[in-house]
Amino acid sequence: MNPSVVPPLRITDPARFGRVAVLLGGVSSEREVSLDSGRNVLDALLARGVQATAVDGIPALIEAIRAGGVDRVFNILHGGDGENGVLQGLLQSLGVPYTGPGVLGSALTLDKIRTKQVWIAAGLPTPRFARIAPGTDPGSTPGQALRAAAGELGLPVFVKPSCEGSSVGVFRILREEDFAEAVAFATDYPGELLMEQMVVGEEYTVGILGDTALPSVRIVPAGDWYDYHAKYIADDTRYLCPGMEGEDEDAIRALALEAFRAAGCSGWGRVDVMRDRAKGLQLIEVNTAPGMTSHSLVPKAAATLGIGFEELCWRILEQTL
């Protein structure tokens, strides 16, 4: 199958989906974004005649399943147990179909460090990195650990939690004075941190829909980099789609699909890529429950192929049948 071709719809009757729980909200650091995404998905499914209901968080979903009111789940629970394999294992054990990758792909890709290790083993390009373990060695401090890793990689670098999303806790370190905020965060953060060489070049993302890699999106923030504000608040971030042309566009879409599959993923998701001016394309991370807000990128890419938001949600839900 051509990875750039979108197949025709397989389902035309919304009754085939039965009762759909749109899982949103939850308790992760991405709750507010998830609520926004979930409301949009719910409205889209209802507009197409799907019997859909919003369910906030996994405990509420369990109760709804126990009550016999759920035939399948549209998972738009960003971060935490919505993307780390916990939800997927639960639903798989209960025999409830769900959108997005399964247990392995979800658990692996929420962990940026392990994802990069798999990509490296598969011979796929990704920036050099260092792992900052939770806590520190006796006699060491978070500041010393961060500076030691930066000394190994060389500035500039990014520091980010290995298992968070939406640019939560991401710090850009260009010079010595930039360490302070990252050190303060690392002092209190209980999980692993990833320090990654900063790619000097353009930022892209590629949506995955089944066996199709959607057109790339080039992200051009008004500020220096694509942080939380640029992603969800600012209206001056520019999105160019397709982000590349000709053979370059074919290459980034093929790489994104290969990276998605290498990480054990299927269904739908999004692969973030950068083009280093010296090294070429570099894989950054995978999102297995991408945003579906007014600023989100998978809907923008789908729209360039004539797939509106309602149809996109329908196509994602089709994958559960």
From TrEMBL:
Lineage: Bacteria, Pseudomonadati, Pseudomonadota, Gammaproteobacteria, Lysobacterales
Cofactor requirements of the protein: Mg(2+); Mn(2+)
Gene: ddl
Matches recorded under NCBIfam families: D_ala_D_alaTIGR, PRK01372.1
Assigned protein family: Belongs to the D-alanine--D-alanine ligase family.
Protein name per Swiss-Prot or TrEMBL: D-alanine--D-alanine ligase
UniProt entry tagged with the keyword NADP: no
InterPro entries linked: ATP-grasp, ATP_grasp_subdomain_1, D-Ala_lig_Van_CS, D_ala_D_ala, Dala_Dala_lig_C, Dala_Dala_lig_N, PreATP-grasp_dom_sf
Cellular location(s): Cytoplasm
Organism whose genome encodes this protein: Pseudoxanthomonas putridarboris
Domain of life according to the entry: Bacteria
